[in-house]
Each structure stands twice: as C-alpha cells, then as structure tokens.
C-alpha cells in the first residue's frame, strides 16, 4: 500500500471518551450545595483565606481548610474576555463575556458567563449576581449557575479586588 500523495490535514469524527469523575468529600459537598442554590467555600485555618470550590488545605499556607463557609451568589468581575468567535457546542449569541468572578467573601475567583448586558458594558469591577437554573433543573454541577448578570450597583474600586485577580 502506498502512502497518500497529499498530507492529511484533518479528520472529522465524533469521539466518545467515557469517564467517571470522583469529586472527593469537599468538592462533592460543593456540588451538592449548588443544587440548592448555595455556594460553599473553605477557610484556611492559618490565613483566613476562603477558597471556592472548597479545598482541604491551603495552597498558600499548606494549612488545613476545615471550616466550610457559605458565600453569597454576588461578586465582582475581576478579569474577563469578550468572545467573538463561535465555539463548537456552545449556542450563545456573539459577542459574549466569560469572566473571572470573585464572590463576596472569597479570596479566589470562579469562572462564568456574564449576560443580560452588552459585552462592551462589562468592566473590571462590575458587580454581578448569579442567575440559577430553575428549581427542578439543577443537578449539582457547575452549570447550575447559568451565568452572572450585572446588579446595577456601582463599580467596585480596583483596590477592593486586586488581590483576587
């Protein structure tokens, strides 16, 4: 058999990669709480930093994070990206915003979409609140928060979130 005369540039096919995700105790607690519209974090016993999702030990201080705390579903956009290119498998109108959101009381950010506003209206410091899937549709995973939307509150000053970028 002879090799092809032209190089293969791409192959298009469906690929199935079955796997099981074992969250562990802290992540499982976090995921179950999302089903009830609650966001949980864990507090470092040495520094007091709050990590979301919860961690068993602090990556900074290497100290236990045994205290589980509930956080509000409001926060601040710390960084963001305006997406202008369609993503395979995502049915979202372009442009849209993907942001790093520091929840009130948390020392690290989580990622989420920002919607219900124009992309050009999102800035660092924009106050946002989670929009949850309706009751009965939440399953205890990250998609239970559909997206974040601006609250209309004044923009947070950079000094209030610069340590959480």
How would you describe the overall organization of this protein?
The structure is a single chain. This protein is mainly beta and 165 residues long. The chain folds into 2 domains: 22-71, no CATH class; 73-158, no CATH class. The chain has one helix at residues 24-35, and strands spanning 39-43, 50-51, 67-71, 74-83, 96-103, 110-114, 127-132, 145-150.
**Largest beta sheet: what is the strand line-up?**
6-5-4-7-8
Q: Which stretches are poorly predicted, pLDDT < 50 over at least 5 residues?
A: none
How large, in whole angstroms, is the Cα Rg?
Answer: 20 Å
Shape category: globular
User: How many discrete structural domains?
Assistant: 2
Oligomer: single chain
Number of helices: 1
Distance between the termini: 56 Å
| Total strand segments | 8
Which structural category fits the helices and strands?
mainly beta
Helix content: under 10%
How much of the sequence is in beta strands?
25-35%
Keyword list:
165 residues, mainly beta, 5-stranded antiparallel beta sheet, 3-stranded antiparallel beta sheet, globular
Itemize the secondary structure elements and their pairings:
Blueprint: H1 24-35, E1 39-43, E2 50-51, E3 67-71, E4 74-83, E5 96-103, E6 110-114, E7 127-132, E8 145-150
Antiparallel strand pairs: 1-2, 1-3, 4-5, 4-7, 5-6, 7-8
């Amino acid at each position: 058999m002879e090799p092809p005369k032209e190089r293969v540039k791409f192959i298009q096919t469906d690929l199935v990669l079955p796997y099981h995700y074992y969250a562990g105790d802290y992540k499982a607690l976090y995921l179950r709480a999302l089903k009830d519209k609650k966001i949980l974090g864990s507090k470092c016993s040495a520094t007091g930093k709050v990590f979301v999702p919860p961690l068993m030990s602090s990556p900074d201080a290497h100290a236990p994070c045994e205290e589980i705390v509930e956080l509000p579903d409001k926060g601040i956009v710390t960084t963001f990206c305006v997406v202008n290119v369609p993503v395979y498998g995502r049915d979202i109108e372009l442009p849209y915003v993907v942001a790093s959101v520091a929840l009130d009381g948390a020392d690290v950010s989580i990622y989420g979409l920002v919607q219900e506003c124009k992309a050009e209206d999102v800035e660092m410091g924009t106050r946002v609140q989670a929009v949850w899937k309706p009751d009965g549709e939440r399953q205890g995973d990250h998609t239970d928060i559909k997206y974040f939307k601006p609250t209309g509150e004044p923009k947070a000053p950079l000094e209030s979130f610069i340590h959480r970028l």
